[in-house]
Amino acid sequence: MNRLSPNQLEGAAAKIRLLLMDIDGVWTEGGLFYVPGAEGMVEAKTFDTQDGMGLRWAHAAGLKTGLISGRESPGVTHRAEMLGVTYIYQNYLEKIPPYEEICQRAGVADEEVAYLGDDLPDVPLIRRVGLGVAVANARPEVKRCADYVTTACGGRGAIREVLEFIMQTQGLWQAVLDKYGAA
Asked: pLDDT by residue (tens digit) across 131-148?
């Protein structure tokens, strides 16, 4: 289902310096939980711990990450800051303006950016970046536009899968394996 051949995918991944992602359906499975709180209903989300470890290792290896979401969530802000995500942009249904601001701040060109999404608002970025990725449970229209479709679903290891692929292609993954004696 990938639009690029394995060699083209590796070539694109080798250039990546920044991974940007959507939240709902990518960092999470897409479900929203509302529970009573002291000041009314509170939104809660679940995040995959292996995705979180992948983000930590990528940051340690020098890769930058960021998120662009159409919704605002204090839980997302907390999780992203805890994991060391550099760029956190929420409440942006139109994702091109924050994308361009992030690229300018990061000093990267389109071909040095990977974007991971799942729904129609993600398509413009998936088409624009050097490595456009859709999660396994993305909308069919989004998968058709992506260079690469993960085997893992959003909220279930898709971020880790993409980070491992990028790090393997760039020769950075072996250091992680060596650190834990998993080589």
From this structure: 999 999 999 999 999 999
